[in-house]
Write a structure and sequence with these properties.
The chain has 258 residues and is of the alpha+beta class. It has 8 helices and 11 strands.
Length: 258
Amino acid sequence: MNCAKSVKMIVILGCIVVNLVGCGMNDTTASSMSTAVSSQDTSSSSCNSEEKNDLQDFSQTLVDSTSVFLNQDQYTVFEKAQKMDYALWGQSSNLKGLNFKIEDAPTFVPMTQNAPTYVKLNGHDYEVYQNSYKEFEEYMKSIFTNDFLSQDSIEKKFANYNGKLAVCDDYDLAQIPYFTGYVGEYYPDDFCSVRYYLKNKTEAQVNFVMIAYYNPNETYEVHDEYSYDDMNKVEYEMQLVKVGYVWRVNKYHSPELG
């Protein structure tokens, strides 16, 4: 059954721009982020993983897991990036549970457990952690490239406060949903789940696409009906690159948070 019928996708970054401007993102930076997200016609786009991909080479099929085309090292680092979603783009408190999601992640502890310690930096509230900024930075670099981490949104969210990690926690910067109708946990597992397809792969680089589906007529609060006809799809460009002898994530987008 089709998820979209001759729908022309229009990528709207308004919600991202509004929520990230507070931590220093300007219109130019926000505009540059949009180039990594595909916007194109999706006639007869299917949720069925067995269907051929209709936008690229027909020899490429949609798959449920990146393990189909990534080796173990590549798959491991990409899986870590996916588990970083809420830590990178969500509330500062999401860092506290990161070690439960990723086995080798540091245990991030706020400066004070019961009453968070906040400081004002550049006019915004930041929560201070007991962890050093260097510890945070080194762990991020074990997953992502320097280019990825130099994004304005990330540099402004995580700051070095007298050697300690400080995380921007303003209400309007906490979460940046791309579309409120993201097909996530509220939908049946077999309904338009995230799909992937490989674009190209070399010894030093892997380029692939994550496809996520959205229903613009639904919100997180209203999700009782599931209509294939209403579904739109967005393609997110992903890239892994080899840095020395190890793989790092160079392009990544959270389908739920932007």
